[in-house]
Write a structure and sequence with these properties.
The chain is of the alpha+beta class and 220 residues long. It is built from 8 helices and 4 strands; from the N terminus they run H-H-H-H-H-H-E-E-E-E-H-H. Helix content is 57%, strand content 7%. A 4-stranded antiparallel beta sheet has the order 2-1-3-4, with helices on one face.
Length: 220
């Protein structure tokens, strides 16, 4: 009797683990119908697709000073969340995608600015925080969002990386995540996501009740 009980308990835990895995897979599928996009985005954090040649056609119209070039990029690439531009909660595009869409979030602006600096041989550093990507250059003023202490990774022009413990404000991280991830998520995606979660919870409750009844039957 004890062996059966132990085996039944283990099987119940395995079924619950299976349901959790299904929920995770469902969540990934709803957010990223093509999961390769997420994999590429993570890869591009460590290998940003900076392309000096790709911005050659912009060189005649950009100003000379780094701060003015940044202002130019902010004006020419209006801010827009990835849900709207790419249909995903978080995506690191290529330079070509940014220039085709002519809009994007901080990653898009970051990529165009770094490419312009690269083409003009202006020294720069890439900074990555949990809620924002930005380019640092000589004379750049820090803002509450763009502070050295906020970054978890710094990347030099030569590709060398520096990892550090970020000291970014938690409320800032949460507010950026909530707005970019949830508030701009299309309604049908929210519906699919929530229905999947509800189905998983109901399934776990039903299975737990069935398991208890089976266990009581075995004891009897």
């Amino acid at each position: 009797m004890r062996k059966k009980k132990k085996g039944a308990g283990r099987w119940g835990r395995l079924k619950h683990s299976y349901i959790v895995l299904v929920v995770l897979a469902w969540t990934l599928f709803v957010l990223y119908p093509n999961p390769m996009k997420l994999g590429l985005s993570i890869y591009r954090i460590f290998h940003p697709p900076i392309n000096a040649v790709g911005v050659a056609h912009l060189l005649e119209e950009i100003p000379l000073e780094p701060a003015e070039i940044e202002t130019y990029v902010l004006r020419e690439i209006p801010y827009q969340y990835d849900w709207v531009t790419y249909g995903m909660p978080w995506y690191f595009p290529t330079l070509e995608e940014v220039l085709d869409n002519k809009t994007g979030d901080c990653k898009s602006r970051f990529l165009v600015l770094a490419s312009l600096f690269e083409s003009q041989e202006i020294p720069y550093q890439l900074s990555f925080s949990l809620s924002h990507f930005w380019v640092v250059y000589e004379g750049k003023a820090e803002t509450p969002l763009e502070q050295a202490q906020n970054a978890f990774m710094l990347r030099e022009e030569d590709g060398s990386l520096q990892i550090q413990v970020p000291r970014e404000d938690r409320n800032q991280i949460w507010n950026n995540f909530r707005e970019g991830f949830w508030e701009y998520m299309p309604f049908h995606r929210k519906t699919l996501l929530i229905l999947g979660w509800i189905t998983a919870v109901v399934t776990m409750i039903v299975r737990s009740c069935c398991f208890k009844k089976t266990e009581e039957g075995v004891r009897a």
